[in-house]
Design a protein that fits this description.
Layout (H helix, E strand, L loop, with lengths): L21 H15 L15 H11 L11 E6 L2 H22 L2 H7 L10 H4 L2 E8 L1 E3 L5 E3 L3 H18 L3 E5 L6 H6 L5 E10 L17 H4 L5
Antiparallel strand pairs: 1-2, 2-6, 3-4, 5-6
Length: 230
């Protein structure tokens, strides 16, 4: 929790610095690129448990992400309790049935067809962990006074990207799931009105027979996603 006494500007020397040659920087960048190319969105999970300490370390990595005014407007609820996972699956599938039964529209459903998804979400119970991501629309000082958070969607998106990369680096797979609306997650996870649920990550080890849609391996080439002004 923030204290008003911490809010003044006070510059400190850069605490961490990576001194790499250009060649070393390129090698590191290419190694990270190649590692992230091995990341896959997975819906089939193994029963092998994942230690809580691994999940906590990955979420701690997410917590280092940059954010608007350094307000860190996020909260992560890590869920392994079977009954709560079953409740979340039940609530999420109810929203998904409305989505697939006409709420989405033909164009959206057509776009999803190559991915092979439907209203059934067994991974929400099969995965050893669910991580519910919440965006904090406002915060509070230690004296209870509310303050506004800034660039909340952008900040939470960056932190979630850090989290997904950390999970992959730890040898885990995950699936991003965004039922809409997701207000049921506030009650299920005991989160306050100030927080908006934005995503559920199913997390674990892939099942031995796990598959991914072939279309998911198609990525835009660099020249389609990059413009250089030099």
């Amino acid at each position: 929790m923030f204290s008003r006494s911490q809010m003044g500007y006070r510059p400190v020397p850069l605490p961490d610095r990576a001194e790499l040659t250009d060649a070393e920087a390129l090698a590191e960048a290419e190694a990270f690129r190649d590692r992230m190319r091995q990341r896959h969105t997975v819906r089939d999970y193994d029963t092998r448990p994942v230690p809580r300490a691994v999940i906590e370390a990955c979420i701690a990595a997410a917590g280092t992400a940059p954010s608007g005014a350094n307000h860190q407007p996020w909260h992560f609820a890590a869920i392994a309790e079977p009954a709560l996972k079953a409740r979340i699956r039940h609530e999420a599938e109810a929203e998904e049935r409305r989505f697939y039964d006409g709420g989405a529209g033909d164009e959206w459903l057509s776009a999803l067809e190559p991915i092979g998804t439907d209203a059934a979400k067994p991974h929400l119970q099969d995965a050893p962990w669910l991580i519910a991501v919440f965006a904090q629309r406002w915060g509070a000082f230690d004296d209870g006074t509310r303050f506004k958070n800034y660039y909340v969607p952008e900040s939470v998106g960056i932190a979630t990207g850090f989290l997904i990369a950390a999970l992959h680096h730890a040898g885990l797979v995950c699936l991003t799931h965004t039922p809409n609306p997701m207000k049921f997650l506030n009650e299920a996870c005991g989160r306050p009105e100030s927080e908006k649920p934005v995503m559920i990550l199913a997390v674990g080890h892939p099942a031995p027979d796990a598959t991914v849609p072939a279309v998911a391996k198609i990525k835009k080439p660099l020249e389609d996603i990059l413009t250089v002004f030099e």
